[in-house]
């Protein structure tokens, strides 16, 4: 199915797929998908919208997520999108240094687009990815990344990916990690996120502070039908503070940036599980 979709998108405007999805796919998801109920509660309890407004926003959320998925396959098919970058200087400054650094992402917008447009020169880039992806997706990612310095590190049950992360950073590379979901570890940080108690994974912030790394947050948000904006933001923390306080400061800086994205783009939150306590 993935390969057929890529072939179709070589000759079909993505907006045709969007229209089909809006009429035949999203209404079914709105009624039957468990994620739709979670997102509905997100709009009701976090953004305090009315019942009807929450239903409409849930439909919009599912529709935008569908577009994100289609856009990924459209890129594999050779289609290109208009990309704007805010805060590129923060990324450029870190690229010019010999030390490695950490790039944190979240399940908002379409982060994969950053890998095709925010590419480093002279540094290797390692993206931590879910090890259970379909082989066709992994093959197409590898093909799309073949002309760049980007490599993928698959999350493995035996936690061997931690050694790969450590080696990549020791060699002065860039490591990209999601910081809004646990990836095999039960250790978390309790925070107030969007005004309600939630938890962030401990691992990404621990990795950064263990080495005293520079850290940036990168979010790629869909701004128009065929356009995305990449937001790059430095995440400051006091490296002379006790380690636990460094981790707390870094997690707070990250959640502040994520809150900014959700304030600007509330309908591009794609965490389809109970995130808040």
Describe the structure.
There is one protein chain. The protein is globular and about 55 Å long. Helices cover 48% and strands 20% of the residues. It has a 7-stranded mixed beta sheet with strand order 1-9-8-2-5-3-4. A two-stranded antiparallel ribbon has the order 6-7. The two termini are 37 Å apart. The protein has 2 domains: 2-76, no CATH class; 82-268, no CATH class. It contains 10 helices and 9 strands. Helix 2 (14-32) crosses helix 3 and helix 3 packs across helix 4 (51-76). By secondary structure, the protein is α/β, with parallel strands linked by helices.
Give me the secondary-structure topology.
Elements: H1 2-9, H2 14-32, H3 34-46, H4 51-76, E1 82-86, H5 88-95, E2 101-105, H6 112-117, E3 125-129, H7 135-145, E4 150-154, H8 161-170, E5 174-178, E6 188-193, E7 196-201, H9 203-211, E8 214-224, E9 227-234, H10 243-264
Parallel strand pairs: 1-9, 2-5, 2-8, 3-4, 3-5
Antiparallel strand pairs: 6-7, 8-9
Helix pairs in contact: 2-3, 2-4, 3-4, 9-10
| Tally of structural domains | 2
Q: Tell me the radius of gyration.
A: 19 Å
* N to C succession of SSEs: HHHHEHEHEHEHEEEHEEH
Specify the structural class.
alpha/beta
Please report the number of helical segments: 10
Helix coverage percent of residues? 40-55%
Catalogue the unreliable spans.
none
Q: How many DSSP E strands? A: 9
Q: What share of residues are in beta strands?
A: 15-25%
* Main sheet record: 7 strands, mixed
- The main sheet orders its strands as 1-9-8-2-5-3-4
Measured between the Cα atoms of the first and last residue, the distance is 37 Å
Shape: globular
Overall mean pLDDT stands at: 90
């Amino acid at each position: 199915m993935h390969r057929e979709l890529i072939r179709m998108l070589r000759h079909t405007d993505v907006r045709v797929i969007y229209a089909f999805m809006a009429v035949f796919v999203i209404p079914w998801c709105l009624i039957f998908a468990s994620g739709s109920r979670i997102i509905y509660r997100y709009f009701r309890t976090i953004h305090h919208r009315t019942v009807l407004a929450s239903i409409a926003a849930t439909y919009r959320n599912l529709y935008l997520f569908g577009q994100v998925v289609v856009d990924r396959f459209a890129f594999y098919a050779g289609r290109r999108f208009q990309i704007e970058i805010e805060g590129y200087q923060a990324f450029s400054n870190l690229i010019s240094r010999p030390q490695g650094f950490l790039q944190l992402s979240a399940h908002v917008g379409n982060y994969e687009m950053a890998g095709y447009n925010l590419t480093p020169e002279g540094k290797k880039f390692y993206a931590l990815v879910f090890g259970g992806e379909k082989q066709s997706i992994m093959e197409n990612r590898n093909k799309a990344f073949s002309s760049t310095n980007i490599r993928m590190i698959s999350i493995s049950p035996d936690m061997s990916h931690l050694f790969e992360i450590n080696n990549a950073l020791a060699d002065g590379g860039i490591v990209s990690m999601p910081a809004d979901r646990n990836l095999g570890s039960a250790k978390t940080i309790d925070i107030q996120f969007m005004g309600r108690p939630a938890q962030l994974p401990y691992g990404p912030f621990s990795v950064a502070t263990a080495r005293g790394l520079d850290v940036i947050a990168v979010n790629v948000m869909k701004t128009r039908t065929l356009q995305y904006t990449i937001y790059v933001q430095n995440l400051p923390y006091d490296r002379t503070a006790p380690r636990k306080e460094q981790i707390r400061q870094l997690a707070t800086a990250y959640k502040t940036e994520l809150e900014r994205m959700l304030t600007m783009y509330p309908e591009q939150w794609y965490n389809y599980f109970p995130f808040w306590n």
